[in-house]
Amino acid sequence: MNLTLRDQPFVLSTLLLAAIGWMIAFVGACMLKVLNGVWWIMLYELLIIAAQTMMTMSGSVEQYRVTMMTLLATSVPLLTIQIDYVIQSSRSNISRAPANTYAAGYIILIIMQYVWILIFGSDKSTFFGRWGQANRSIGKEEVIVEKDDRSKPIVPVILTEPCPPSASTDFIEKVQALHTYQANSEDPNELSFEKGEILEVADRKGNWWQARKSDGTIGIIPSNYFTVVDKENV
């Protein structure tokens, strides 16, 4: 699943600002001629930016959330120490302009990392967590525009996946909700559910599963909000 700036403008804007901050810090380090002493920190920060960009563009942030939070937890203290050291040194034996450039780049970078911790470390249903979500539903609907050789009017064909649930479907597996979800009011097939709620599903193929709630309501649910319940615990 590939995302564009239109899908996640806020997240990708933070990535751009983080890259700018890193470049400013790199220029400052070159001006201070201290790159040999801090090259590994510069490389570490660049790898974090690259990894966050790849995960955002591939839509795999949820799968690697713990890994990214661990990397950021290490990065923030490193940047804080570097900023404090350069600011203190600029008052004595280091040129102020290069030192300020170096510190300014890292200040921009550390602010962006705090933003990532808030939006990617928070639950999707929270205020900050929603900022890390795409602005449109991806993988649920696809619009195909067809036009024949006789230049007939363009006819949009909407393909919805999965098909509307059927009451005759066999629901053979139980899953538990990891997060609370409010169904889209424009889609009557979606189900709302609370965190920890147990539902039954017919199969676990695709991004949307056909499911049945305990009250008998049948609909579709997003697969990444659920985990399979062990039969021994049922």
UniProtKB/TrEMBL annotation:
Pfam families: SH3_1. InterPro entries: SH3-like_dom_sf, SH3_domain, Sho1_SH3. This is Transmembrane osmosensor. Residues 170-231 form the SH3 domain. It comes from Rhizopus azygosporus. The keyword Cytoplasm does not apply. The chain crosses the membrane at residues 12-32, 38-57, 69-87, 99-120. Coiled coil: none annotated. Its main location: membrane. It is a multi-pass membrane protein. The keyword Lyase does not apply. Keywords: Cell membrane, Membrane, SH3 domain, Stress response, Transmembrane, Transmembrane helix. It comes from the Eukaryota. PROSITE patterns: PROKAR_LIPOPROTEIN, SH3. It is found in: Cell membrane. The lineage of its organism: Eukaryota, Fungi, Fungi incertae sedis, Mucoromycota, Mucoromycotina. The gene is SHO1_6. Belongs to the SHO1 family. GO terms for cellular component: plasma membrane. SMART domains: SH3.
